[in-house]
Amino acid sequence: MSMFIMDFYNVESGVQFTLQWRNEEEYLLGKAFLKDLLGDDGSGGGERGAVPFYYLENDQVRDALLDFRRELREKTKA
Asked: What is the pTM for the complete model shown?
């Protein structure tokens, strides 16, 4: 089973966290959302094949990400 995970660092709060997406579709939607939210790929780089790592400038960006993920999950419940 593949693990669709991303690591994040919230610069404002100094908190690092990991999100696991349910499936590839949700993971790709999350990557597209982050690209729109953060610009470019938004990641801090890293080795090919490594877990994507994103810097979130503040709590508002973190909240937008978590709201997006919550909305995705609510849609799949219906």
From this structure: 0.83
